Amino acid sequence: MSAARAVQRTSGIDPVALLGVVGLRSDDVYFSATELGRHLGQTAREVNQRLAELGLQQRVGATWSPTHEGRQHAVVLDVGKQHGDGAPVTQLRWRVSVLVLLGPDDLLATDDERKTGT
Fold this sequence. Notes:
- The structure is a single chain.
- This protein is of the alpha+beta class.
- It has a domain at 31-101.
- It has seven helices and five strands; from the N terminus they run ααβααββββααα.
- A three-stranded antiparallel sheet has the order 1-5-4.
- Helix 3 (33-40) crosses helix 4 (44-53).
- The longest helix has 10 residues, at 2-11.
- The radius of gyration is 15 Å and the shape is globular.
């Protein structure tokens, strides 16, 4: 929440609203790598790689898991499904605060700038 407020205060842009979320507190909103990628003009794979490069997540078997540094920006949610063995299906989701770490320039870029990388 504080990161979203800081971005809004310094740039005049509300990152939560940019992601299409209205009427919720940003500390209650979590985004998948796919959702972050849509906003940033990147694939989920690219977002996951960048999060790993920043030391915020790591691969544990076939899934991503937050690192110690990433836990303040992440939550692992039960998605209400079960694996064949009955174990709950969970998904790593990210708070809006991670957008600042992914690159503040991305918050201000237009769709054309994101596509061309300029």
